[in-house]
Amino acid sequence: MTRLSPIELTLSSDQQQLRISLDTSSWQARRHTSSGSECLLDWEGPALDAQNSHRVLDTLFHELGTRQIDLYGSAREAFHTSHPAWVNGADRSAISRPAFYQVREHWLDPALWPVLPEVTEQTGDIQHPRRPVTGDQILYRRFSPALGKTLTLRQATVEKDGERFHRWQNDPRAARFWEYPWSRKRLDAMLDDRRADPHSLPLILEADGEAVGYFETYYVPEDRLGPYCEAGPFDQGMHVLVGERKFLGNRQTNLWLNTLSHFLFLSEPRTQRLWGEPRADNRGMLRYLQSTTWQHHGEFDFPHKRAALLSNSRHRFFADARL
């Protein structure tokens, strides 16, 4: 896996200048803030290529906490601003935080860029849109300014992940809520079933190539959760298992949840809401409602458990989540 180099942002003592460094390259610009917007002008340094253009913007949004970035003069010429997410005027190019983080081409593998036509299929007695077929390549890649590591998502496989999946599911911490402390053979079969199911996508999240955990995603209308919520035809859900204990903790788990949410909203732009149904007594998971854009909608009874109903709206996520 190719690890992306960190981008360093330094502000002058008077906060009027910023310096950006990446490997052996550096850039400088004059800045000022106005009504929640970060304005850049008097850019010094070479023009940015397409990848570094969006990576610098990602760093600026994260480090400065701004809602919008406005580019003027030489700063405008240094960035790639042709995507429709940009608002281009006579002397200014501007992009808002919600628009920037919904540009799918920045983080998704090109195979995921086309949007599947809305063709109806049927699973049992449920009609739903046809679901995409997903390969085994890196599906999502982003350098996290918060963590200083490259985060990736790929589909889980028995060959690569069978041993760790078995170990994670048999950890008493996970088994208490997942209830799959099964044999390796049985868990391998379960993973293969998830991969073969068109409505399900089993994912492995990695940080600098090191496996963090297993994240099982699904389309809600044809899932067991469907009858218990008002899900749209493209709404998705998730089950979360942070497998390695070193990756637990509020700061890290918030990032894992936001990374997975970001991927799901990008991979299907018609997804308006994400859903979750953890056990109602899973206090460890429910406490993240206080520090993410997920919301609690009460409790309900599955045949096998008492569950909390959670959701995360596209609008609120892109407006308020800190990636």
UniProtKB/TrEMBL annotation:
Residue ranges of domain Acyltransferase MbtK/IucB-like conserved in the record: 154-201
Annotated protein name in UniProt: Acyltransferase MbtK/IucB-like conserved domain-containing protein
Pathway: Siderophore biosynthesis
Pfam families named in the record: Acetyltransf_8
Organism, as annotated: Marinobacter zhanjiangensis
Gene3D superfamilies tied to this protein: 3.40.630.30
